[in-house]
Amino acid sequence: MIQRYPDQIGSGPLGGLDSGSLASVRWDDISGQLLSARLNSPSGRVVTDYFNSAVNFKNNAVYPDDFAVFSIQMHHRCLIGAGAVLRPHFHWYQTQNDYPNMILGYKFINWGAATSIETDWSGYTLLIPDSDGYIYPGSGTFGQITRFPEVDSSSLTISATVNFVLFRDNANDSGLFSGSDPISGDALISYNDSHIKNDSAGSRQEVIK
């Protein structure tokens, strides 16, 4: 069974077209394959799994010491301004009927505008998962998509960058979860990407929508 966002229709795992604006807006992915991400885990608690093109966030990963960082750039075809959103989610190999204590941090950077140099994660907004895209069948290894809450991206401009960091908080050191990670084993995550709205085939000028 597919669990869709409430404003979507269609056959995709998280829905299809936006029911409120079928004539002008279509959804698309901005992908961030974690295999190409930079990993930081001095004790080897977050490692590359080459055989599955994924990153293994082990069940002893520590927040905020162990993490993967990656970024996306906003397409010229995406909706800019009012109504623009990101719907981030991660693709992973699920083996139990729950999802791990993953934390996604993000920061917007509009090029040609004021920004800041970060020396820690305090400049990032943190999200925790809120639902699965599919219902786990109860046993075996299952290709799952787990969602984070929707993000208002109306402040982003063409070619803006979104910097991401992904943690697994096994012991709930962040205090963002109700308790320790419910997944007893490792969390093998392949992609962390975001759905966006497109309203054109591209921009009419090189740096202006």
Please supply descriptive tags for the structure shown above.
single chain; 209 residues; mainly beta; Jelly Rolls; eight-stranded antiparallel β-sheet; five-stranded antiparallel β-sheet; 15 strands; 37% strand
Could you describe the 3D structure shown?
By secondary structure, this protein is mainly beta. It is built from no helices and 15 strands. The strands form three sheets. Strands 3, 5, 6, 8, 11, 12, 13 and 15 form an eight-stranded antiparallel β-sheet that branches. Strands 4-7-14-9-10 form a five-stranded antiparallel β-sheet, with no helix packed on it. A two-stranded antiparallel ribbon has the order 1-2. Strand 5 (46-49) and strand 6 form a beta hairpin. The model is unreliable at 1-22 (pLDDT under 50).
Q: How many runs of DSSP E, i.e. beta strands?
A: 15
Total individual domains: 1
- In the CATH hierarchy, the third-tier topology is known as Jelly Rolls
Termini separation comes to 38 Å
**How much helical structure, as a percent, in the residues?**
under 10%
What gross morphology would you assign? globular
Number of helices: 0
CATH class: Mainly Beta
Low-pLDDT regions:
1-22
Percent strand: 35-45%
Main sheet properties:
8 strands, antiparallel
In short:
The protein is an all-beta fold and about 210 residues long. It is built from no helices and 15 strands.
Write the SSE topology.
Elements: E1 8-9, E2 17-18, E3 26-30, E4 38-40, E5 46-49, E6 54-57, E7 67-73, E8 85-94, E9 102-109, E10 125-127, E11 131-132, E12 142-147, E13 151-152, E14 161-168, E15 187-198
Antiparallel strand pairs: 1-2, 3-15, 4-7, 5-6, 6-15, 7-14, 8-12, 8-13, 8-15, 9-10, 9-14, 11-12
